[in-house]
Amino acid sequence: MEVISNRQAKLLGIMLAMDGMLVSLPNKVFKLAARDAWLAYLLAFPVVLILLWMLTKTTARFPGKNLFQIMVLRRPVIGRILALPMLLFIFLVILRDVRTLSEFVNIELLAYTPVPVISGLIVLAIVVTVNSRFEVVARMIEIWLPLTLAFIALIPVLLYPEFEIRHTLPMLEKGFGPVLQGSWYTIAAMGQILVLPFLLPSEQFGLRDGLYSLVITSVMMQWLNLCALLSMGSVIASKLQYPFHEMVRLIRVTDFLDRFELPLDMIYIPLMITKMAFFLYAFMFGMERIVPALHMDKLLLSFGACCFTFSFWFFRNASQLFNFNRTLSVLALMLEVILTGLLFVLLRPKQQSPPKSSAPGKT
């Protein structure tokens, strides 16, 4: 495992926690929580933080090792069995993200380009990125993630003429029930940051680093949701396929400066490819730990082809893809809670028996 800087680890955490909530997820949250959607992101923060504390506490018991290594060394049989659901989750996230990005590019940018062609180019970019080693993935995040955060921070400044406070009132009209339902999606998506302890030891990614990443993610997502709510209202946002993207289209500085979604796409697409490259690396790294005979360099291209094929086998159209977000969120929530609890209990360091005191010699 390559060594990355502490700053890169924090940026990785922000990317994993935030990137999955930027495209299709806001539509689901707005449908459930309506004008209180921003509270769903607020509720996700303490839940994910507790789960992250449990995982980082587990890795701290074994200095210099990540969870995949600890599971195999500490519990050779049970550890490999418990690693399989995590690898399956990573695999499903890769398939979903490949098709989601392909559909997004097809709808918003390349309407006349076949989706398989777009997906093939995306998978090729992912494979080339992973083949360039993990350090390259971390360096790519240092380029694209700060640009994304800067663009998000500028949205209220450019969009404030469209804000109407009436869209936010009345708050909690239907109680906390809809907010709790919306938080299922946000917890599952923000919980993708829990993949990091499986690759990075506690010295590289600890609880403080995770707290830093989660705070920035929570603030940015509430920021975006409030902007979408103030500018469009929850009724319109819940009926849009990509609410945040359509919100950016409302920005109009002059008659000739009204296509701000294009620079956003130029930043978001490379960031999404970087995220998928990270998940692909995580999957191959976990497979190498479970089956030492496998070699990532030899299987990388073949697995990329499998991702391309399965992304069309699992999702025949965009409707099935967006409906899958509900299923994946339920699976992710169960995995994040149950697997984290099991690892926290099972992966304890062996207690060393106290040395026996020798009998005193006779004088």
What does this structure look like?
It is a single chain. By secondary structure, this protein is an all-alpha fold. The chain is built from 14 helices and no strands. It has a single domain, classed as Hydantoin permease (Orthogonal Bundle), CATH 1.10.4160. The chain is globular. The relative contact order is 0.21. The protein starts with 5 loop residues before the first helix and ends in a 17-residue tail after the last helix. It is 72% helix and 0% strand.
What is Rg?
A: 22 Å
- First-last Cα distance: 58 Å
Broad structural category? mainly alpha
Work out the helicity level: over 70%
Strand content: under 5%
